[in-house]
Design brief:
The complex is a heterotrimer. Chain A contains eleven helices and two strands, in the order H-H-H-H-E-E-H-H-H-H-H-H-H. Chain A is mainly α. By secondary structure, chain B is an all-alpha fold. In chain B, helix 2 packs antiparallel against helix 11 (203-229), helix 2 (28-48) crosses helix 14 and helix 13 crosses helix 14 (260-279). Classes of the chains: A mainly alpha, B mainly alpha, C alpha/beta.
């Protein structure tokens, strides 16, 4: 029994890595723009469908297809930011929630029209292939997904810490007004940050699409988890997003094995509640009294 | 100006009372659902509009009310008819009790975190409703008794008046809160919570009051809805779309004003139903709804009522009443 | 017994020491000035007294009773009022409504009753008169000029008839004419028995208005006394001009 638990925990770590990637995009958007992108789940599903099209039509492996889907999603992100988010002046936080929710519904609707409501999955040939490590079977896809996440998160980390652009982003996250005062083009940073968020959604979409059956309505479950993760980790904190993602997925997967799969999703949210009782600002968030 | 507004409100009220007598019974359903959203948007406005705490999880309270009334009716063996409607206040009380712990945790957080916590609460509730099969019937649903003796032409009428009564109650409560000391405190909290505390406003108590009152009203409306649709399923009462619709309607009309949510519901719900009817099967419905949604928010970010009020000539005695725009024309 | 007393209060944020071994006493009926170079911990002290932060060490007493750990609204009800550095008002409420918010009410019925009783409205209008803002009663506070907001904020603090008022940079960004009005208002209110503790950078304002003056440097008091004395104190000059 405990062997299953350990295997579940390992799986939790691997899938947690993917969720960490998606959550990082979401927390980046929040940190730079102070908006909650409730449409992030729908964008991941969109990414999954894009990969699906490349896979079905042209037999391009989803991981390789990222070379196409990521720039496309990045560009789409910049456009969406310019058209729908930029015009919001008053009451930005509240209205951006409504706007991104509308975008999510719109994407769900368009995907529903283009594809059916049937569940799809990116069934690559190596989907169930894996390696035996002792007693456990580790599927390659989870490993690839995890490696992809680590690679992208590291890339994002390097971008943020070693480039001038990254410094500008971090400055904007810390204090938007001050960043503007020292000449940072906050508007452009916002658009690019949103684009990067979309690119991480594309990557997340690939792994999501391979490991889970999805349809246009899958974004609800996904966004509820992603939002819970970034709040648990602390809004705007990358370290928080990563730790929270891994923690939550491990708890969820171990619960599924030790207790019951139907209650596994519940523990996800219950964990959030427990943490918030003690720390309303999340694990790595800052208590802002302003 | 005030006189015209009062006249319009009176006319609307009279019209609403008489509607079932003049209209074709087959479209009374639109009236029932529209009044439902008038009540929901108005109730939501108390915590979302006046206090500025945007709850996206109010569908959870809607669901609690629907299940609560159904369970009470079932346990007491109340037959179909007017009985269940009389027990609606009990559903409100149960929802209020449920709102206490939720509010206690959620209201310790601010702004964006609060929004997400309410979303999480709603999904938790949906999972609970699905898994606690013994209590709620899970995905098989919870049944209400079917009213006997209400012919097909009459059946919507009691529900119509029930929704009208609850909408009127929500409006009455909203009006009272707005002009009370409590309401002034809520509006101050919305503008600057820390400063409000520094000036002696008991922020926690005020927020909890607004949250619980709002939840109770929504719960009662949910109860009537549950009875109306006869079978309560987790995904159909604890439905994010219901939750977001009431928020959108409040914002369309003007969150933080009294009439805003009413106006928003009166405009959006019939439109929403029409869209669903005409395009639902073509799956175009969601896209169109999203498009309407986006246009509304981008064109009228402050909502209809504040935008209208800005354009009207000001009387020198016109007080702000919290819906004003400090960035607008002076 | 001093009205407000701090004893060996300390507060740090991560690695930054905001306040350290800070002891000071504010005597009742005085207009006490609190000055010091930027970053010397003045606003933090205000936060500690009014319940926005809790001290890491030390005691804070008001009329001899500890007020550590009390929430801001509770501190207000004990009789301590406070303004903020950037002239915060409630922008979407009118000037009159801004003044009605702090007026205390008793009990549940008090809360459910109307937002303004005749008595309260009269008091609020009198306050507006006193501040010279009577014409702006129905104007949204967000549309007021900076100076008008400062006055309104001062008025709001006074509405609950506090015994002690903490003013955070009341002269900041204010033109000389308005400055005189603010100083006059403070003197008038002090004459009616209100004690003031004022954080300020404007030396002229402080030296004219305050006695005693306390100087803070890097989180601890380094001098205290009548303005002339403090002005000449070498340690004070050092703190402002030194390394």
């Amino acid at each position: 029994m405990s062997g299953l638990a350990v295997e579940a925990a390992a799986l939790g770590v691997l899938t947690g890595g993917v969720y960490a990637l998606m959550a990082s995009g979401l927390t980046l958007i929040f940190g730079v723009m102070r908006i909650i992108n409730v449409g992030h789940g729908a964008l991941v599903v969109l990414g999954a469908y894009l990969s699906f099209v490349l896979f079905r039509q042209w037999h391009i492996d989803p991981f390789l297809g990222l070379v196409v889907t990521m720039p496309v999603m990045f560009g789409l992100g910049v456009v969406l930011e310019l058209v729908f988010i930029r015009p919001l002046r008053t009451d930005r936080e509240a209205l951006s929630v409504l706007v991104t929710y509308a975008l999510a519904l719109g994407i769900e609707g368009v995907l529903g029209l283009a594809f059916s409501a049937n569940f799809q999955q990116l069934s690559v040939w190596y989907e169930s292939a894996g390696v035996q490590v002792g007693d456990f079977h580790v599927a390659y896809v989870y490993g690839f997904g995890f490696l992809l996440s680590v690679a992208m998160l590291s890339g994002l980390g390097l971008l943020l810490t070693r480039t001038t652009f990254g410094a500008a982003v971090r400055a904007t996250m810390l204090n938007r007004a001050a960043a503007q005062l020292i000449g940072i083009d906050v508007a452009m940073i916002s658009a690019i940050a949103f684009g990067i968020g979309m690119a991480t959604a594309a990557a997340g979409g690939v792994v999501f699409g391979i490991t889970t059956a999805f349809n246009p309505g899958s974004h609800y479950d996904l966004i509820s988890r992603l939002l819970t993760i970034i709040v648990l980790g602390g809004l705007g904190s990358f370290r928080g997003a990563i730790v929270a993602a891994v923690l939550m997925l491990v708890v969820q997967d171990v619960t599924a094995v030790l207790w019951s799969p139907t209650w596994a999703a519940f523990t996800f949210f219950a964990l959030l509640t427990l943490v918030l009782v003690a720390r309303p600002q999340g694990l790595y968030g800052m208590r802002v009294r302003e | 100006m005030r006189l015209a507004a009062r006249g319009a409100a009176a006319a609307l009220g009279a019209g609403a009372l008489l509607l079932p007598l003049v209209v074709d019974p087959s479209i009374l359903n639109v009236g029932v659902l529209t009044l439902m959203y008038v009540g929901l948007a108005t109730a939501w406005n108390i915590i979302g509009g006046y206090t500025g705490y945007i709850s996206l999880g109010h569908a959870g309270f809607f669901g609690i009310g629907a299940y609560a009334l159904g369970l009470v009716v079932g346990h007491l063996g109340v037959p179909g008819g007017y009985g269940p409607l009389l027990l609606v206040p009990l559903a409100g009380a149960i929802t209020a009790a449920a709102a206490l712990p939720v509010g206690w945790i959620a209201l310790r957080t601010r702004a964006a975190t609060f929004v997400i916590v309410t979303i999480a609460f709603m999904f938790m509730l949906q999972i609970l409703a699905t898994n606690l099969r013994g209590l709620t019937g899970g995905s098989q649903g919870l049944g209400y008794p079917v009213p006997q003796g209400w012919g097909p032409d009459f059946v919507d009428v009691p529900f119509y008046y029930a929704m009208l009564a609850l909408a009127a109650l929500a409006l009455g409560v909203s009006w009272w809160v707005r002009r009370s000391k409590l309401g002034l405190g809520l509006l101050a909290i919305r503008d600057d919570e820390d400063r409000a505390s520094a000036l002696g406003v008991r922020a926690r108590a005020f927020k909890m009051t607004a949250f619980v009152v709002s939840a109770a009203l929504v719960g009662m409306i949910g109860g009537v809805y549950g009875y109306y649709v006869t079978y309560v399923y987790p995904q159909f009462v604890i439905d994010p779309l219901i939750g977001i619709s009431m928020v959108l309607m409040a914002f369309l009309g003007g969150a933080g004003t009294l009439a805003g949510p009413v106006l928003g519901a009166l405009l959006l719900e019939p439109a929403q139903l029409e869209l669903a009817y005409s395009f639902g099967s073509a799956r175009l419905y969601l896209v169109l709804y999203a498009a309407v949604f986006l246009v509304v928010i981008l064109l009228l970010p402050r909502g209809i009522v504040p935008s209208l009020v800005d354009r009207l000539p000001h009387s020198p005695l016109e007080e702000g009443r919290g819906g004003g725009n400090p960035d607008g024309p002076a | 017994m001093a009205l407000l007393e701090l004893r060996a209060v300390a507060k740090r944020f991560g690695g930054v020491v905001a306040v350290e071994d800070c002891s000071l006493a504010v005597a009742e009926g005085t207009v006490t000035g609190l000055i010091g170079p930027n970053g010397s911990g003045k606003t933090t002290l205000f936060d500690l007294v009014t319940g926005f932060q809790a001290p890491d060490a030390g005691a804070v007493t008001f009329r001899g009773r500890s007020i550590i750990g009390l929430a801001p609204d509770r501190v207000h009800r004990l009789g301590i009022g406070r303004t903020f550095q950037l002239a915060r008002v409630f922008p979407r409420l009118t000037a009159l409504e801004n003044l009605l918010v702090p007026v205390p009410r008793r009990g549940l019925l008090g809360l459910l009753a109307g937002a303004r009783t005749a008595g309260e409205e009269r008091r609020a209008r009198e306050m507006l008169d006193f501040l010279g803002l009577a014409a702006l009663a129905g104007q949204l506070a967000g549309r007021l000029s900076f100076g008008q907001r400062k006055l309104l904020e001062l008025g709001a603090v006074m509405m609950a008839r506090p015994d002690l008022v903490l003013l955070d940079e009341p002269a900041g960004g204010v033109n000389p004419g308005l400055l005189e009005s603010i100083a006059a208002a403070i003197r008038e209110l002090n004459g009616r028995g209100v004690t003031f503790l004022i954080v300020e950078h404007n030396m002229g304002f402080v030296m004219d208005l305050c006695d005693p003056v306390v100087v803070l440097d890097r989180g601890r008091p380094i001098a205290s006394g009548p303005p002339a004395e403090v002005r000449a104190d070498p340690a004070v000059l050092d703190a402002y001009l030194g390394a």
